[in-house]
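--- STAGE predict ---
source: upstream dedup step, 1 unique chain passed
mode: sequence only
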Amino acid sequence: MPEGGGVPRGTPPPSVVPGALDEALRPEVERVFGDRVERAAAYRDLLATAGVERGLIGPREVPRLWDRHLLNCAYLGDVIEQGSSVLDIGSGAGLPGIPLALARPDVQVRLVEPLERRYTFLREAIAELDLRDQVAVARGRAEDVRGEFSASVVTARAVAPLATLYGWALPLVVTGGHLVAIKGRSAADEIAAAAGVLSSMGITAEPEVLRVGPDEESGTTVVRVARGHGPLRSSTSTTTAPKRRGPKGPRR
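--- STAGE serialize ---
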């Protein structure tokens, strides 16, 4: 196994044509990404090639990059206000931040990622996709950039349970902003388990579970938490840095 968790030398490439798109998905991909659909296809190809080679994407994920990853992440745009600033913490291979940026040219996105090989990939992807005017990347953990960066929306995907994510993410949200986290079937259970953490931080708003996207079957489950305007107290939850295990999509 190569250093960094890549696929072993000699492993045959996934039997998927680069950029190939199921015709059933084409209308939705074109609707979501509009005139940036070619850049979205280029990002998909980066994930299918360099992303697999560097261990950021599992080879088995390649056939479902469009629906399970790019569209799944881009649907966040349905609950983000026009002109928002976005911090994507524990960004990994750029999910959800890069698909969101491609689908929403009006938002400014900063990717936050602590691991060097992922940080390097993100810088290369931003340059190759010509997103440098819209997307930036910072190397570090969420707690490392606290006080340096903040945004009206902080987002995360497959980073940590809400009880832990609240402590990492909410201090990065400006007053009046939101944490918007992609979650799966366990969203309601996570909200219940993390209620004490929100209370200890002084957050009084109830988390919302939203389903975004075209329909129930192909949409994305999102938990949105309002930061509010009052003072934010320190969380009693752990502050250990997130350990990414690859871009596994949430179970629907």
